[in-house]
Recover the amino acids of this structure.
């Protein structure tokens, strides 16, 4: 099950591992994605840190990590074809991490609450 | 979006997938299907733009004696009826109040097409420079559609079969007065995308009819987002970005549109600037990656500031970032690459770029 941050990242948790991506809502707002910078593997990140960024034809936006931990893998397929995010933002993850503080997950929204949140924006 | 003006096509646009933004006091579509798709459609087929927000003034009077010929940089006196010309409304310092196109409707009649954001100040300025004649702002009653793309002529020709209009005969920056759906239409072979294209000046009801008819033909609507990438790929200037009251046409690298051998407001300042030598000029650049700079990014060589970005976008044709950069001649070395930085977000690092030549894409 995915959980969502106010900054529009999603995280899917499998044990101590988390898979992070950007919400469809955020991608829809950004429009055609043209460039993506990925986080550095092995970097230690703290919740709400800016760890990477995404550029679209219209705008540029930081990607914030929803929880703290260590980055273990990045989706390099997105470097050459960042438009994959426009095709499916839910399937095309950005990076995987080992979560260091599971309690931070509780601060995130489930999908229903997140959808209500984006409707209010 | 409160207090924003809407074009006659607003309802039609809201009935299809469309994203509206506030632009120069108007609620305008920035995109329909997506900026890159719309851009491609204009380059390869035909795209339709609603540009009804632009201003249209009508002048009637003596071109030689009324003051209209000195009001802008455009020499109307030598402009033939049925032709139009691009140029500038300048202040006394040679700064650009607006860029505009003047259409010679007859010996003593003109249509002046201006940017929406500048229409009010343009009208006041031109009026103040007239000794005689009349200037009438009909922006509210005139709608404007731009059909741009290699297939535009073929598609549009279909609507003029009964009128004995052959669009093959219409040269670049020429126009005709004709009828479409029985209503008056001024049709010009102009546009701001670099493609073969036409601009249609009609009333609001006719604009709706044409919009729906062309969409039925398979033409795709395109918004301001695609328009921005298309115009920048050709290196065309955008008012508010590359041109403003502090920038002269010489600095904007547009000296081919000002003839300094005739009198017009701002001419003396431009002559002086030319004699003294330019201190800065707008140059085109390409980034070395898919990263694009944005307006107001700063440019550096060896950590020394060399200028600022006035326009920038991702080029769907070239797959790199492109843009226009105002550089100071004293500090800029054009033979070396430079770094573009976002002063409001240093975390994203700098973008490497090099001087390029115009147009960015060869047509």
């Amino acid at each position: 099950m995915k959980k969502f941050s106010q900054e529009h990242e999603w995280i899917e948790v499998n044990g101590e591992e988390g898979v992070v991506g950007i919400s469809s809502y955020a991608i829809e707002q950004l429009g055609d994605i043209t460039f993506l910078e990925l986080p550095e593997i092995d970097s230690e990140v703290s919740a709400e840190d800016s760890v990477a960024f995404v550029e679209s034809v219209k705008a540029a936006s930081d990607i914030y990590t929803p929880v703290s931990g260590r980055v273990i893998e990045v989706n390099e397929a997105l470097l050459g074809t960042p438009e994959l995010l426009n095709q499916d933002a839910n399937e095309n993850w950005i990076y995987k991490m080992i979560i260091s503080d599971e309690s931070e997950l509780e601060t995130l929204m489930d999908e229903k609450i997140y959808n209500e949140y984006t409707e209010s924006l | 979006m409160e207090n924003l003006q809407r074009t006659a096509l607003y309802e039609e646009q809201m009935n299809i997938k469309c994203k509206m933004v506030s632009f120069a006091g108007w609620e305008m579509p920035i995109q329909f299907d997506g900026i890159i798709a719309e851009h491609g459609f204009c380059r390869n087929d035909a795209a339709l733009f609603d540009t009804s927000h632009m201003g249209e003034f009508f002048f009637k009077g003596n071109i030689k004696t009324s003051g209209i010929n000195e009001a802008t940089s455009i020499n109307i006196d030598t402009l033939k009826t049925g032709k139009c010309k691009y140029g500038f409304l300048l202040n006394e310092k040679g700064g650009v109040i607006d860029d505009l196109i003047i259409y010679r409707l007859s010996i003593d009649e003109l249509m002046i097409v201006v940017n929406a954001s500048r229409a009010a100040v343009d009208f006041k300025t031109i009026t103040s420079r007239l000794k005689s004649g009349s200037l009438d702002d009909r922006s509210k009653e005139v709608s404007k559609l731009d059909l741009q793309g290699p297939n535009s002529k073929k598609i549009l020709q279909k609507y003029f079969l009964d009128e004995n209009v052959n669009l093959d005969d219409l040269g670049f920056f020429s126009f005709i007065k004709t009828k479409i759906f029985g209503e008056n239409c001024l049709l010009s072979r102009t546009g701001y995308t670099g493609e073969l294209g036409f601009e249609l000046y009609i009333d609001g009801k006719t604009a709706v009819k044409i919009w729906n008819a062309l969409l039925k033909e398979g033409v795709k609507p395109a918004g301001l987002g695609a328009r921005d990438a298309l115009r920048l790929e050709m290196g065309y200037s955008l008012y508010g970005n590359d041109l403003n009251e502090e920038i002269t046409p010489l600095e904007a690298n547009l000296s081919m549109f000002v003839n300094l051998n005739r009198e017009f407001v701002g001419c003396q300042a431009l002559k002086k600037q030319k004699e003294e030598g330019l201190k800065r000029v707008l140059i085109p650049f390409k980034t070395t990656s898919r990263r694009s700079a944005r307006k107001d990014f700063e440019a550096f060589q060896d950590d020394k500031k060399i200028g600022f970005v006035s326009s920038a976008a991702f080029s769907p044709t070239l797959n790199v970032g492109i843009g226009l950069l105002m550089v100071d001649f004293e500090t800029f070395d054009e033979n070396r690459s430079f770094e573009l930085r976002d002063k409001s977000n240093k975390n994203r690092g700098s973008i490497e770029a090099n001087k390029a030549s115009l147009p960015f894409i060869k047509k």
Observations:
- Strands of chain A lie at 2-4, 9-14, 17-22, 33-37, 44-45, 50-56, 60-64, 69-74, 95-99, 109-110.
- The first helix of chain A runs from residue 24 to 30.
